[in-house]
Amino acid sequence: MSYRLGNEPTPSNRLWATVVVGLQWLTIVLFALLTLDVLWGVLSRYVLGSQSRWTEEFAIYAIVWVSLLGAALMFRERGHLGVDYFVGKLDPSARRFTAIVAELAVMAFAGFVLIYGGFMLVSETLRSGQVTPAMGWKVGYLYSVVPLSGLFILAFSIEHLVTGRTTASADLIGKEID
Fold it and tell me: Rounded to two decimals, what is the model's pTM?
């Protein structure tokens, strides 16, 4: 978040900014580990002659984590894909209304599918005792990224509504690039 001169951030704004930066760093570290893992998998297979058993499994779960956490971060920055051709044809007040309705739909999806459904997925998988074959990790903990990303998407959606970023982005829709 940027702040204007004389508009100092509150402690809660600083805390939220710290949480967002933490999420960014977690995603960066996971992506770096994914890169190193794939590199090690290739080297161990073609140089050493026998691929490490855990590299493929780790890569699968790392890419899921990076994808879901990265999607939440991109949602916050409005970097996600959107089909806005028809919305761009509407007048500005209708665009704002459409943006708010879309934000509410995202909140419902994040709340029901990602948070509630993800929590059910995690709890059922933990209850079943399922573990990964190569690493022996509990699968439920690996699935915890689903409700975690849902919480972030929901929080970012609330942030959009509170800060008015939905209406600002809606006003940009329909403007032609010269």
Answer: 0.85
